Amino acid sequence: MTEVSEILMSVLSTIRVPRPGDRVHKDECAFSFSSPESEGGLYVCMNSFLGFGSKYVERHYAKTGQRAYLHITRTRKTQKEDENNSGSGDPPKKKPTRLAIGIEGGFDVEQEQYEEEVKVVLFPDRQEVTSEDLASMPDVVRERVSLSMAGLQAADSVSHTLQVQQWDGEVRQESKHAADLKQLDNGVKIPPSGWKCEVCDLQENLWMNLTDGKIFCGRRYFDGSGGNNHALLYYQQSGYPLAVKLGTITPDGADVYSYDEDDMVLDPKLPEHLSHFGIDMMTMEKTERTMTELEIAVNQRVGEWEVIQESGTTLRPLWGPGLTGMKNLGNSCYLNSVMQVLFTIPDFQTKYVSNIEKIFNEAPSDPTQDFKTQVAKLGYGLLSGEYSKPAPDPGDDPSTSTEPRGDQVGIAPRMFKALVGRGHPEFSTNRQQDAQEFLLHFINMVERNCRSGMNPSEAFRFLVEEKIVCQQSQKAKYTQRVDYMVQLPVPMDQATNMEELQEAERCREEAESSGAPPPAAPRAQIPFAVCLAALSEPETLTDFWSSAVQAKTTATKITRFASFPDHLVIQIKKFTFGLDWVPKKLDVSIDVPDTLDLSSLRAMGQQPGEELLPEVAPPPLMTPDVEVKGILGSQGNEEDDSLYSPLLSPVLDDSTVSQLCEMGFPLEACRKAVYYTGNTGIDAAMNWVMGHMEDPDFSAPLVYPGSSSAPGTTPTESLPEEHLATIISMGFSRDQATRALRATNNVLERAVDWIFSHLDDLESMDVSEGGRSEGGSEASREPPPGPRVRDGPGKYELFAFISHMGTSTMCGHYVCHIKKDQQWVIFNDQKVCASEKPPKDLGYLYFYRRVVE
């Protein structure tokens, strides 16, 4: 013991006592899902407070030299089955009355009973020191080590803090603006449907400003979906702080966001604020249950719940590699379903699981905060089979269960969920979320963390070609954009059982008028071919500004695939809003095929003899009282300042430019907005600004057609050193950081987005400190290459689908079905079973892979 005492004395300076705010990982290994209950227990570093399973603690010692670890082992006590849990998967006998965890009337917090043993282990020889052993050691050793041990035992673990918070849906603070919010008497009344963004006409993810009733779209995702940031931009212009998300308004409340406080908030005067615009939320007729009641009833097995979970049959539990369940951390089934599907895709397996040793070896000092490490950890946990074992029965007598449980030990992705949700207003909460939105959010994170090397999200990436034909001139315009998902519309008016639906609606109205209970509604039968036709049919654009005829006219837009990805994701757009403002899901059955041939939807590009719309907008309108003076050049002279001279300097409406500048936009961007909208006023110029804010040359000087350069010189404004340092710390060179900041007017957030969207260009750039290439000016360089996409035949086979149960994305439950070795398998959180009747007609997200011929 003298030798051990000497070792402790030598490492005493590395042993820390946890302070408030320290992150203590004493429930989960940083590299695996080992816990104190696992074989070998958990080793907590007494310096960094990181936890490691027996398989990885040696790695940490070898890398850091840290010798002292607190070894925690827990053994589960045998206990009688809780009377509130039937053990059969049925709803609890004591039904919760409010959506809450750990408080009166809410869901009970799982309280397992364990016998815990702790001791200090010294590496590399794994010498053990118990609390009793410390009594005979020098005072300085005994005091420091005892305080550290006690502090680690008393500290709340990170996973405990994240998992078991007392929440009532979500704890939100009352907005400081709510009580005295000034609302404009502008006569605006908001209808219960048909909303669209006032800037870009987007019809989804809409927010109504509570000051003036204006409706704008929400934040933009990495791939351009979700919104165009117009609600946020409007706040920056107007200063009106509060907005409510349309579609979330119920008699119980709504989602209210404060742009000033940058958070979801409570508005105690919301009924009054909504009634100002004609929305009477408190007296609206509700359907059968409120949204809270629907979410509490997640275990009710009726209708789609029973079909999707295959609850009516005895399912055979499955175990082994690739058949690992995931624990539900509280409304985390959306995450579980998405990640189960992603790790059946070879690109994700190769990137994260095949390279796991390299990823772990290169992990930073805190691997719990490293994206690649946590994704690799999750992937290995799902594919290895190490955690695909039957869960211990909670009762004393396993024979009391009348059917195979199918529950597994599984894995609890707490670190992963905390990391991918950090800073996100939705995924950082314990509320139910949209699996489609999470999939795009995760792909976004993959894109950002795969700056070099293999990028598995390329498996989904494809190009969309949009062809717009001016109906007046018959000239066309072609544009391409990147996408990761096909959103398939659901034409309810083309249901094959329309007569049955109409008769059911008539019976419902009769029952409602007589006060009788409404009859069960039939499910609409929609052919998949009809949905596909609705996606590919031409769309008519009104108020299209044609550069050929110099005026607004009608145009036709045709959307086609410019490339076909290796893996195709199809979202069925089931979610909509009822006339009573309650978000709802279309109850439809779609005969989604096992095989799919989209070859007929491949884009053909410009056709022979087809004329293109002019790329450059015409000169702006000239007012008759302004004397126009051109810039003399090779094609101009003093006698002929022709309006058609390519070097002519048009007159811009200074008042419109000034108005835009006052809103905070760069001067050159404002000048371009007025120029390209032909001096047609502030509204048109504002629309141009909103639509071009993400352009890398948004704030670059205006270049008139025919001129070789913009007036003035290359921007020489100083770049903020702190912005440069931030971007350089992400692994980019100073030259690359400089270029990104100059392309985005020194706005850090936009510079980061810009640099990640120009990776291919940046990899090959050769720029001197001044920002110019050695071969000449930046303007003379080749344009950056397009996004890297894979292409091949448009023939696919279905291999997975994610289904949603419930009436909206804000409540309910997700499960996924995955085809493994020609057998459909259902993944329902911790239950993994062979599927008997996969409900392919009721899915929400469908995953296809290319058929290799």
Q: Can you give me a brief rundown of this structure?
A:
With 853 residues, the chain is an alpha+beta fold.
Kindly list the characteristics that best describe this protein.
Herpes Virus-1, 853 residues, single chain, 6-stranded mixed beta sheet, 17% strand, Helicase, Ruva Protein, domain 3, alpha+beta, 27 strands
Itemize the secondary structure elements and their pairings.
Blueprint: H1 2-10, E1 42-45, E2 51-53, H2 57-64, E3 68-76, E4 114-122, E5 127-129, H3 131-134, H4 139-154, H5 158-163, E6 173-174, E7 206-209, E8 215-217, H6 230-238, E9 242-245, E10 256-258, E11 263-266, H7 270-275, H8 291-296, H9 304-308, H10 333-342, H11 346-354, H12 356-361, H13 371-383, H14 414-421, H15 435-449, E12 462-470, E13 476-483, E14 486-488, H16 498-514, E15 524-526, H17 528-536, E16 539-546, E17 551-561, E18 567-572, E19 575-577, E20 583-585, E21 588-590, E22 595-597, H18 654-662, H19 667-676, H20 682-692, H21 721-728, H22 734-743, H23 748-756, H24 759-763, E23 795-805, E24 813-820, E25 823-828, E26 831-834, E27 843-850
Parallel strand pairs: 6-11, 14-18, 15-21
Antiparallel strand pairs: 1-2, 1-3, 3-4, 4-5, 7-8, 7-9, 9-10, 10-11, 12-13, 12-17, 16-17, 18-27, 19-20, 22-23, 23-24, 23-27, 24-25, 25-26
